[in-house]
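Tip: read the tokens left to right.
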């Protein structure tokens, strides 16, 4: 059974030591909790895939702590340097051509590697103690909702991992934005996230291609990104989306509003105090996971406007609702 460890110096040292030995541990980041292992150690990588029951064709993000680690694992074009300077540490993942030091299992045999530098202070304290980059997918069983609190990881993965480093609730609450710079002149958005594609375009000064063809749920296509699968981030309870107004539940169904002030009955829930979408993002996965354990026949989920972070939220909600 997994132990939840508070981020004391002793525990940080202990987890860093386990990671150096090729073990894996759940760690906090500002987006969601990750299941981390030494990115340069194929045995650690195998443990990550096994614990998540993740298809081997679905590559992992490598988390770095400094620029030296970046140059060690990836070939970085100027556009990468520019975006890294602007958005790192933070919730932006960039895809580069990889260097041979990165094991094939990390990248699912692709010639490219996904890289991110997280900003969470506890993560950074841990990474500082590890003389290697950390591969870390979200710390949930494949296809389920990502964990944004240590307790979510314990509930979802408690029997398959040993250590969970508790960094509190995640600040951002949804997974990072992913942009491919494999063709630096033609950047490609692979997953929407907390950093909007408009912000990336403003910094780069070139258009970012929006949406490659969506992968089908039964493909874990090496080509694009499983974040693009139609059904992903899904709870067990069926999700029904609504926009504006109030749905009429049939039987014991939960209704989740963006703005908590819209709640009326005992089965109404809010994602924020006043409709602020950053707060909605912070609370969405926690709310969905809590309701998923309450035996509702259905969860009605209100969609936000399709702009700013609302774009990423709509994306996750739509995938959670997909059949
Ligand atoms: O916010 C996040 O990104 C979190 C935290 C832990 O960093 N991580 C996360 O990892 O969401 P994961 O494994 O759940 O999603 C990683 C996504 C997948 O959609 C994967 O296909 C894509 O990144 N990916 C990884 N390497 C890739 C590559 N070389 N080319 C294209 N997509 C890649
Ligand atoms: Mg994931």
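Filled-in amino acids:
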């Amino acid at each position: 059974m997994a132990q939840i460890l508070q981020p004391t110096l002793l525990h940080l040292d202990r987890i860093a030591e386990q990671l150096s030995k090729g073990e894996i541990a759940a760690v906090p980041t500002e987006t969601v909790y990750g299941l981390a292992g030494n990115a340069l150690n194929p045995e650690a990588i195998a443990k990550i895939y096994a614990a998540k029951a993740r298809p081997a064709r679905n590559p992992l993000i490598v988390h770095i702590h400094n620029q030296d680690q970046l140059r060690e694992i990836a070939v970085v074009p100027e556009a990468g340097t520019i975006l890294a300077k602007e958005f790192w540490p933070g919730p932006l993942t960039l895809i580069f051509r990889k260097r041979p030091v990165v094991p094939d299992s990390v990248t699912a045999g692709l010639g490219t590697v996904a890289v991110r530098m997280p900003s969470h202070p506890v993560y950074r304290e841990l990474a500082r103690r590890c003389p290697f980059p950390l591969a870390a997918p979200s710390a949930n069983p494949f296809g389920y909702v990502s964990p944004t609190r240590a307790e979510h990881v314990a509930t979802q993965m408690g029997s398959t991992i040993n250590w969970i480093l508790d960094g509190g609730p995640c600040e951002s609450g949804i997974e990072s934005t992913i942009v491919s710079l494999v063709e630096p002149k033609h950047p490609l958005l692979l997953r929407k996230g907390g950093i909007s594609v408009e912000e990336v375009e403003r910094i780069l000064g070139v258009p970012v291609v929006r949406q490659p063809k969506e992968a089908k749920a039964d493909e874990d296509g090496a080509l694009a990104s499983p974040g693009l699968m139609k059904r992903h981030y899904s709870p067990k309870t069926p999700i029904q989306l609504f926009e504006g107004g109030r749905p009429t539940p049939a039987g014991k169904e939960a209704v989740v509003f963006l703005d908590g002030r819209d709640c009326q009955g005992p089965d109404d829930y809010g994602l924020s105090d006043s409709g602020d979408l950053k707060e909605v993002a912070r609370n969405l996965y926690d709310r969905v996971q809590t309701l998923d354990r309450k035996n509702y026949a259905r969860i009605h989920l209100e969609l936000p406007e399709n702009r700013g972070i609302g774009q990423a939220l709509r994306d996750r909600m739509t995938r959670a609702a997909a059949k």
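Confidence is low (pLDDT under 50) at residues 215-223. Residues 29, 31-32, 34, 58-61, 91, 93, 95, 107, 110, 112-114, 116, 136-138, 175-176, 178, 190-191, 225-227 surround threonylcarbamoyladenylate (ligand 1) (CB under 6 Å).
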